[in-house]
Each structure stands twice: as C-alpha cells, then as structure tokens.
Amino acid sequence: MKTKRMFTANLVPGMVVAEPAYTYDNHLVIQSNTELTEDIIDKLKYYSIKTVRIYVNEPSKDMPKETKIGPTYFERIEQSDDFKKFQTEFNSCIKGFRQTLNDMIIKSSDGLVDEMLSEIESILEKSRNPLHLLEMMQCMRGYDDLTYTHSMNVALISNVIGTWLNLGNDDLETLMIAGMLHDIGKLRIPPEIIQKPAKLTDSEYEIIKNHPQYGYDILSTKNLNPKIKMVALQHHERYDGKGYPYGLKSKEIDLFSGIVAIADVYDAMTADRVYRKGICPFPVLEHMELQKELYEPGALYKFIERTVEAYINTEVRLSNGDIGRVVLLNKNFLSRPIVISGDKTYDLSKDFHLQIEALL
C-alpha cells in the first residue's frame, strides 16, 4: 500500500497513519495504523509533531472514495516493507542460531557469543525502536514451540524490556545472550516431551523441570558472564518463592533472570502451539498483571505499561462481539483499558465479564 508524508495541518479525520508518531523525547503519541480523528489530530498539533506518514488508498472504479475499506491492523503490518524485511532477516537468523546453540554444548564459547550477537543485532537493525520490534514480532506468531525460535524471541523481548529499563549497552548485550541461552538445557530433554502436542503428564513435567539445572551445567564450563549462567538456572524461579528449581524469593533472584522470566512467559503465551492458537496480548498481560507477585515488579510494570501503550487507538474485538477502539489506559490495571464502541464506553477495569479477545 502506498504512503505519503503530510503536514499535520493538512490532516483530516479518517486518514490512517503508516508509522508511529513520537514526541521530541521519544514518547509515543500514536501508534502506526491509527485512524485519525479530530481529537487525535489536535493531539499531534499539541505535541508539535509537524508531519506524519499516512496510507494512501486508490479508490476503485466501483467504490466511492469515502467508502473504500482499508486493510486490518495486522494486514497493514504484514503488507509493509518493514515487516517483509524483518521476516526475512528473522528466518535467516534462526537457521544460524540453531547451529550455534547446538555448538555451544560441545564447543568453547569463544567466538560463538559474537556469532549470536551478530545474528540478533541484524534483526534489531530491522526495527526502529522497542515498540516497533514488538509490533513486528506480534505478526510472526505462526511458529510452533521450537526451542530455537522461542529463545530468539525471548532474547528480543528481553532487549525491549531492558531498553525500557534504561540498561546500558553492555548490559543489554549480556541480557540478550542470556535470553538466547536460557533454555539451552532443553536440548538434554527427550524431544518427544519437548514437542508433545498435548498437556504434559506429572512425570513428564518433572523431567522438564530439570532443564534449568541442565542449562546451568552446560554453561558453567564456558567463558561467559556469570549473569548468563544464572539466567539459565533461575528463569523459572518466581518472586513469591514458588518457582523452581530452588524456590528462590525476591532479591535472591538476579534482575536479568527476572527480566528473562517475563519475556519467557509472554512469548510462550502469545505464540502459536500445536495444541492451541496464540493468545491475544491483552489477556496474556492481564494474566501476568493478576499474578504480579511472581515477577520482578519494576520490569513487569514497565513492560505492561509500554506494551499496552502501543495499542492505544487500535481497533479491537471484545468478547461480547462489539468492535471498539482502545482510548485510555487504567494506571491501576494496565491490561484492562477503556474501550469505546459506537456510543458505548467500556471501562474494562470494572467490566470483568468482558475482555479484549482480538486486535483488528
């Protein structure tokens, strides 16, 4: 679909923006694929945003311009050049990462870490900022639960969280490598358990629970930052002490382990599986927010807040079938925002019989 840059002063309601708009200090004002209203245009002017890029629909001969129907939220993203480049780079990197991860078990880590950083940084180069990266990843949910793809996703999401927490470049690199290697212990678990297309039995789950220790054992002999080894061991520990393998609590868990734990759960729940489709981000974030005592509090709050911000002005389908638009965050319940549908306003922090079930 064609796009063009326009002065904010010339915008009219009904136009759809082709990229996010940010303030001078990089705060999100509107997300890409937002349909403009008079209020949103005023908001752009208020924040001194001079130009935005919009989609240009060529009207068909059989349809008047004002009734031309545009693509949906995900269709716009999937049709964009940005997404096609991102998808190509991601697929290419997975092939190299698969070999590198297996090499890590039998070879020295010398050189392999640089290879992994090179692979993931080539993906990061295809995204403009953390929100854009999450947007690209949300359109790539057709992969099954493969250790390699999941680990790459966790590394990317950990980078997003670390960036929002203002970690330095060296720490971000360490965090990404930790995300890529957090599940390396699963390579010692029988594949018929890892790839089982159904719920695990209790005995199978006990076998799976060995993978953090296996991962730590594999990495313990490698010349790696100790935080990377600790993430492999601790990414299933929980802040209330009910995680595994050692039932650690709160400050006993390294910050990087806490960040990777959030990325791990979010990717696992939003990705497709052989036994179910991926879940919409909002119910996943709500599930994590309701269980916030399990996670590093600062990292979880920042992740949910900034992720939900990405969907302000996005059209959604509610569980009652109504189509509406996310208009406002509830600071005390971030994952349940306010949605307007026609002349109805739903405050999801109060309407618990409703939830957002799909982004449109």
Provide a descriptive summary of the structure in words.
There is one protein chain. With 360 residues, the chain is α+β, with helices and mostly antiparallel strands. The chain is built from 14 helices and nine strands. It has a five-stranded antiparallel β-sheet. Strands 1-4 form a two-stranded antiparallel ribbon. It has a two-stranded antiparallel ribbon with strand order 2-3. The radius of gyration is 22 Å and the shape is globular.
What low-confidence regions span 5 or more consecutive residues with pLDDT below 50?
Answer: 59-69
Distance between the termini: 18 Å
Count of β-strands: 9
**Average pLDDT value?**
85
Alpha carbon gyration radius = 22 Å
Numbering strands along the chain, what is their spatial order in the largest sheet? 8-7-6-5-9
Helix content: 40-55%
Largest sheet: 5 strands, antiparallel
Derived from helix and strand composition plus strand pairing, the structural class reads alpha+beta
Order of secondary-structure elements: EEEHEHHHHHHHHHHHHHEEEEE
Summary keywords:
single chain; alpha+beta; 14 helices
Compact description:
With 360 residues, the protein is α+β, with helices and mostly antiparallel strands.
Outline the fold blueprint:
Layout: E1 2-7, E2 21-22, E3 28-30, H1 38-46, E4 51-56, H2 73-79, H3 81-106, H4 112-124, H5 130-138, H6 147-164, H7 169-181, H8 191-194, H9 202-208, H10 211-220, H11 226-234, H12 255-270, H13 281-290, H14 297-309, E5 315-318, E6 323-328, E7 338-341, E8 344-347, E9 356-359
Antiparallel strand pairs: 1-4, 2-3, 5-6, 5-9, 6-7, 7-8
Helix pairs in contact: 3-4, 4-7, 5-6, 6-7, 6-12, 6-14, 7-11, 10-11, 11-12, 12-13, 13-14
